[in-house]
Specification:
By secondary structure, the protein is mostly helical. It is 71% helix and 5% strand. The relative contact order is 0.05.
Length: 983
């Protein structure tokens, strides 16, 4: 802009009578000097469009779409005015070249007059448009400051955009205070205007060109909402040249008429005016450059913040989905049936201070953990979907959105951290701790030398601990490993007690046996719709065994195993599992209703919530931290099922209505004349069939509705089969466009079911079918075959006579086999076949439709098959462990007593049978060897009582082997009897 003044002075000088038909030498040289100093950092361009492109390339090479529409409009006007100023400055260059040529060539000065007139016009135009651009730049500053304040940028002071806001505010403050000593764009502009004023005063012009205005003078046409929070009431005293242009031109005319040409030229700082224009309107080290840099920084950080918010939003969405998945898996994990104190007791046994309690959630009880996790997740989802909705409709400020996203991300990370803590500390951490601890215990037991008299008391415990440690290493199931770990650690504590104080150890065992007997008596005394007769018979045998006063450790092991097997059987019963699932769902539904009430009190009445809570509280007495109190529950199983299932159904219905009401109340219509979108959000969970009733907007009749929508009583009614979780929207095109309305398939999260997702789901279903079929065809039959062989190898009475109660009777095994056979059916196989045909044809949708028809039937049979398998595995493992313990006890007896050839022979046979995995034979021979030693040392006459047992053991071989082996076995029996008599 300053160069305009320099050239304007030249033009006025040439037009003010200093010209003649023939220039004097002084005038000619002055003309040449003035017309030769037109350089400035202004790009060369011949049209306004080209100059506009140059302005974009040189100063505004950034995306301005991030600004408000008002700021974008003003930026466009700024660039337009700057481009026009550059265009006229380029014309000035051409004028000066012509003037310089005329002055240098001594041409006719008549040509010079025309060039000077054009120069005068172009100079004034360059000045006007440059000055206009300066005015617009301050409008932009004020608008952008107001917009950032409206966006509540002060909420996110850690963001770089806040620094831009501070800089904008400093610029406006510098304008308000007239501060020209800082490094801001406004201060730089004021310095340049001061320099220009000094240059002008050298000519004698003294009129001030400070213009006093207010921000509203700039922004009077904009909505006051934009500026209502902006602190911009103080007047701004900004120097602009346009208001004094006429008086300055008049002054110059007078000045040049009264002064000689040489005197005027001496007083006119030509180069200073050229530099002044460059400092204001050039593209290097100018006010325009500084203003563009200010906007560029602002635009860059706006864009970065938008991108960061999008990234955070995506991250939060993913974290919420991951958290939902992890929480839903909690109840399905193989350790979900552990008792309420399982994990805290395991940590205690491992010698760890339970740091779990310092986390946000306690995982002493998985049912409580899941409930607490859900209570944290649901508010996150509610706030997240509400934020998505408000962002979609631009009803939330940038600062509020950014702050809320960060809070949501922090909350989601905390939730995942606690869930991850569950995974790492409970799953991986406990597994590693158990492995390390059991390895140390095993090394100690194997390497430590124990005195014979001590080992005699603790040999069976030592063997059982080592057996469990070895089973831990070989197990693929995490839940089974943890159970083995806890049992091994408990038994190691018993081992240490027995080692240090065997009497105290015996007293504790007696107390446990007494409590165990009391519990089992109470459990079997109640009427139960779940058959427990086989377990009751087993208990009667243990009680009969107790009357013969065997070693207390035998009773301890027998009753402990019975209690564990009985509770495992009950907990794996289909009806019990469905009851626990219903109780968990009922608590979750009630929690969701309470959460809806928290966010919108008018939807769910307090009386209804109190009623539901009271009814659930009455049922809770049958559950202890997720476990069932079977003594109380079994007599009332059917009634409890009816009550609980009814409450669950009622809560589900109320939940569906409440969600529909919440979604209806929190809807948003958004769009224009071409289309309208209905935006909804449901953070609470997927519902059953619901009906949404939404007030109809005035112009809804102008839009095409989908078939599932209709209007009734001034409400838009949407009948949905289910209300999905998350944010979603429906789009209605204008009837003028003639396009069909979109069906219910548009989601704000863009979650659609793809072919790959269908295939993956169908593959999972196929895996379930294959696993179930293989279990029935191969897995269970092998287990039955092995167990039948074991149970038929030794008569149960013989084992009982040797103080051993079978963990699974032959009668019980036969019942389980019949139950297993009943799981197969021709109708189910036919359904599997139809599913397989669809799957092989890659018709995954039809395959899943077929699977849905029999999934519940399959689920029930899966549970029954797994329960049977678990009972068989437990029985086999118990027999193997009992065999290990019996062998260890017999070996300890043999080492601590006077040598007995008969016992040694029986022990050798026991070890041989164990290696063949004939565990019951091993138990029989080992117990017989121990009994011989006991009787031999206490009362030799008692051997007469023992003869039938020995004969019974031998008869096992008579039953199991072919006739050609009978003579050998009879001879073996005779040897046993002779040796026993000889002893």
């Amino acid at each position: 802009m300053r160069v305009g003044f320099a050239l304007l002075l030249l033009a006025l000088l040439l037009c003010s009578g200093c010209l003649s038909q023939e220039l004097s030498e002084d005038a000619r040289f002055a003309c040449i000097d003035l017309s030769s100093q037109a350089y400035a950092f202004v790009p060369e361009c011949e049209t306004q469009e080209k100059c506009f492109e140059k302005a974009n390339a040189e100063l505004f090479d950034f995306d301005s779409a991030v600004f408000s529409s008002q700021v974008r409009e003003k930026i466009f006007y700024y660039k337009n005015n700057l481009a026009l100023s550059w265009l006229y400055f380029n014309k000035v260059r051409e004028n000066l070249k012509e003037i310089n040529r005329v002055c240098s060539s001594r041409s006719d000065t008549a040509v010079l007059a025309r060039a000077v007139n054009e120069l005068n016009h172009n100079l004034i135009s360059a000045f006007i448009y440059s000055d206009n651009a300066s005015k617009i730049s301050f409008e932009i500053l004020i608008l952008e400051q107001a917009d950032l304040e409206h966006e509540k940028i002060e909420l996110i002071k850690e963001e770089q955009l806040f620094n831009d806001y501070v800089l904008l505010k400093q610029n406006v403050n510098d304008l308000q205070s007239g501060n020209n000593s800082s490094n801001t764009f406004a201060s730089y502009y004021l310095r340049q205007m001061n320099d220009l004023e000094s240059l002008m005063q050298q000519t004698g012009f003294s009129k001030t060109f400070i213009d006093e205005i207010t921000p509203l003078d700039f922004l009077e046409k904009y909505d006051s909402e934009i500026l209502k929070e902006a602190d911009l009431e103080q007047s701004l005293e900004i120097p602009f040249l346009t208001p004094i242009l006429d008086s300055f031109v008049s002054f110059l005319n007078t000045f040049f008429r009264m002064s000689s040409a040489s005197h005027a030229l001496e007083r006119m700082p030509a180069f200073g005016f050229l530099q002044a224009y460059n400092n204001l309107a050039g593209f290097e080290n100018s006010a325009a450059k500084r203003f563009a840099a200010l906007l560029q920084s602002n635009a860059l950080h706006r864009k970065q913040l938008v991108e960061s918010n999008f990234s955070i939003e995506t991250s939060v969405s993913q974290k919420i989905q991951i958290a939902e998945s992890k929480i839903s898996e909690i109840s399905e994990k193989d350790f979900a049936g552990f008792d309420s104190n399982f994990f805290s007791s395991l940590h205690f046994l491992l010698g760890q201070d339970s740091s779990i309690a310092t986390q946000k959630f306690s995982i002493q009880d998985f049912s409580n953990f899941r409930e607490n996790a859900l209570q944290e997740l649901l508010p996150l989802k509610t706030e997240f979907y509400a934020l998505q909705q408000s962002s979609f409709t631009n009803s939330v400020s940038l600062g509020e959105r950014t702050l809320k996203l960060k809070e949501l991300e922090s909350g989601a990370e905390t939730l995942l951290a606690n869930l991850g803590y569950l995974d790492y500390e409970t799953i991986q951490g406990l597994d590693l701790l158990c492995r390390e601890r059991l390895n140390r215990i095993s090394d100690f037991l194997l390497e430590q030398e124990f005195p014979d008299n001590v080992l005699l008391r603790i040999a069976d415990l030592k063997a059982r601990i080592l057996f469990k440690a070895n089973s831990f290493d070989n197990s693929d199931s995490f839940g089974e490993r943890l159970l083995l770990c806890r049992r091994a650690l408990e038994e190691f504590n018993d081992f240490k007690l027995a080692f240090n104080d065997y009497e105290e150890y015996g007293i504790q065992n007696e107390i446990f046996v007494s409590d165990c007997f009391d519990f089992m008596e109470r459990l079997f005394s109640v009427n139960s719709e779940i058959g427990l007769s086989d377990f009751r018979l087993r208990f009667e045998k243990i009680r009969a065994l107790a009357e013969s006063r065997p070693d207390i450790q035998t009773l301890y092991s027998s009753c402990s195993a019975l209690k564990e097997d009985t509770l495992s059987f009950l907990n794996n019963n289909y009806r019990v599992l469905k009851l626990k699932e219903s109780f968990s769902n009922t608590r979750e539904l009630l929690g969701n209703l309470e959460l809806i009430d928290l966010y919108s009190e008018a939807i769910v009445s307090d009386s209804a919530l109190d009623s539901f809570s009271s009814r659930l509280g009455k049922l809770a007495k049958y559950f202890v931290s997720g476990e069932l109190d079977f003594v109380k529950l079994l007599p009332l199983l059917s009634e409890l099922e009816d009550t609980l299932f009814s409450l669950e159904a009622e809560l589900s219905e109320n939940f569906g209505r409440a969600v529909a009401e919440f979604v209806s109340q929190n809807h948003v219509f958004d769009g224009d004349s071409n289309s309208m979108k209905l935006i909804l959000s449901n953070p609470f969970g997927e519902t059953e069939r619901v009906v949404l009733k939404i007030p109809v907007p005035e112009n809804l009749s102008e839009f095409q509705l989908p078939e599932d929508f209709f209007v009734s009583n001034e409400n838009l009614v949407i009948d949905l089969n289910s209300l999905p979780l998350g944010g979603f929207a429906f789009e209605f095109p204008s009837k003028k466009q003639g396009l069909p309305a979109q069906d219910l398939n548009y989601s704000l999260q863009e979650e659609i079911v793809s072919d790959s997702a269908l295939k993956s789901t169908a593959e999972n279903a196929l895996d379930r079918i294959s696993t179930f079929s293989n279990l029935l065809a191969d897995g269970l039959p092998k287990k039955f075959s092995k167990l039948f062989a074991l149970l038929e190898s030794v008569p149960e009475d013989t084992l009982f006579g040797l103080n051993y109660v079978l963990p699974l009777s032959l009668e019980r095994l036969s019942k389980l086999e019949l139950q297993s056979d009943s799981l197969e059916s021709e109708s189910l196989r036919e359904k599997f076949k139809i599913f397989g045909n669809f799957f092989n044809e890659s018709n995954f949708e039809a395959a899943l439709g077929e699977f849905g028809a029999f999934e519940k039937e399959l689920e029930k049979k899966e549970i029954e098959a797994k329960s049977i398998g678990a009972e068989l595995d437990s029985a086999l493992s118990s027999m193997q462990e009992d065999a290990v313990a019996a062998l260890a006890s017999a070996e300890a007896f043999l080492d601590s007593k006077p040598f007995s050839e008969e016992s040694a022979d029986l022990l050798a046979k026991a070890k041989s049978e164990y290696r063949k995995e004939n565990f019951l034979k091993a138990i029989a021979f080992a117990n017989a060897a121990s009994e011989i030693l006991n009787q031999a040392n206490s009362n030799p006459d008692a051997l007469i009582y023992f003869y039938p047992i020995i004969i019974g053991i031998a008869l096992v071989f008579l039953v199991r082997y072919k006739k050609k082996q009978l003579s050998e076995k009879k001879e073996q029996l005779r040897r046993i009897v002779r040796k026993a008599r000889g002893a």
